[in-house]
Amino acid sequence: MKRIKYIFIFLILLATSMVSAQVKFQAKVSKTKLGVNERLRVDFEMNQDGDNFNPPDFSGFTVVGGPNQSVSNSWINGTRTYSKTYSYFLAPKKQGTFILNQATIAIDGETYKTVPITIEVTSAIDKPADPNDPNYIASENIHLVAEISNTNPYLNEAVTVVYKFYFSSSVNVTNLNDVDVPKYNDFWSQDIPVKELKLEKGTFKGEDYNYVVYRKAVLYPQKTGKLDLEPLTLDITVQVPTNRRDIFGSRLMTRANKRVSAGSRSITVKPLPEAGKPVDFTGAVGEFDFNVTTTKTSLDASESLQAKIAVKGKGNLKLFTLPKLILPSSLEVYEPEHTENVKTLLRGMEGSVSDSYTLVPQFKGKYPIPSISFSYFDLKTETYKRLNSDEIVIDVLEGPVNSQMASSPSHDASTTKHSVVLNSEPFAFIKTKTDFTPIDTTSFFKTRTFWSLLLLPFLAIPLAIVIRKKKAIRDADAFGNKIRKADKLARKYLSHAKKAMGQKEAFYIAMEKALHNYLKAKLQIETSDLSKDKIKTLLIERQVDAEVIVDFKNLLERCELARYTPIDIVTMQEDYDKAAKTISIIDKQAR
């Protein structure tokens, strides 16, 4: 039994060591489809060093560069990370479909092979690109895409547009700037704020990419037919790899500036069907509930009550009118108060809208509020639906009797309108006599408290004179006061970022919140208005220099992107100092 136990422990240790030392050897290509006049890059990567590397024969291609060898060896938290890469640049010989066969290498006496890759070569493209050109590399590795939830909606049906920015792991994006922002003509539109650029994994044209959701909007088409969406255009600053290497063998990066566009998109809007359209239909599209309620059903004359018409659900809540309340002419009615409690989410509007009427009966009797209806187009069934409210009877228990109704039984309380009878004593409820009693003040005078309160102002006069002189001297230093105020404001908003120095993610989250909170306080705007265009417009109106506005905008974008790229504490300190300086300058310049 003891021997079996030792064998079992040995097998566990052996399996653990094999798992921890798992070898990876794989082939990666820059693209799987290219023109016959383009170039293809192939990388063979391994996580352990090996011997006798044998590339495939590259049948159908000519080797125009390589093999280039790069090695990366690092220690992070006591864990060693090793990577070795052989790179080749290939030119297709002709059109067709080719297979890059297996490459082999020997590692620790074992032979490892890559998986074959299929490459499609098409006809020549219009403009042959140099695979080493930074602009070409950037254009091949960054893409802006507009994803539309529904390209064939009904009139007033919600459509979601999500702009995703894709970039490959081989490049580093350092800056994003809006150039052209869609205006969404012929649509009711609502931008959905993107609080932060969250890095996610996805695929673009069958290849693995990183991406961030850059902008989101909900649209409600207001016209039928083909409607065009203007493209979103961005200026991008990106670092791309070159063929040059440093003394440690790491690939050097170079900067490229690119302008990318999501491209023009169109939506074909269907009209709502005419068949079965109700006469009272006012344009509601979605899924709704409808009701009419009153705050009370029995009261005395001259008292008031509220009658509310409410529509609740999902749909174009802000884009239709509510039905009118039908009331007896004997009730005094005030103009309704319209209330909207609507949230615009990525899937569309949700919430409720209502009209609240104030009613005041003047005579004793029963007053019926008849049933009213609300019609809407249901997107699930693609049919019109009608909802009806219940009849409500208002019972006025006490009050003057309508003389015309009493003398003429043929008159109805719901149809006869009479003048208002005023109360002869409308202010009878106001009290004219009080129950106040005098306060005994003889015990307070000539006490220590009395003399202390009497002499204290005279003793405080010299101290107040000294404080006033110092304050006058400080107030006279207008320039110094402005600098002190600006610096104090910067330190106040950046205090949390200062405490998180050295913790990359916490630091940039705190700095981004500080920049947003400063703008909210300085420009008196809400969080929902903190768009880049709005910020730029308000700062220009406050006569802030254009260069300072650009610095502030770049800081915000830096906070969004820096959380996903390696940053050292020196860079954090530089960003902190720049943020403090920028806030201070804006506070001094803004009028």
From TrEMBL:
Regions that span the bilayer: 449-467
InterPro entries named among the record's database cross-references: BatD
The keyword NAD appears for this protein: no
Keyword Protein biosynthesis listed: no
Keywords: Membrane, Signal, Transmembrane, Transmembrane helix
Pfam families: BatD
Span of the signal peptide: 1-21
Lineage: superkingdom: Bacteria
Name listed for the protein in its UniProt record: BatD family protein
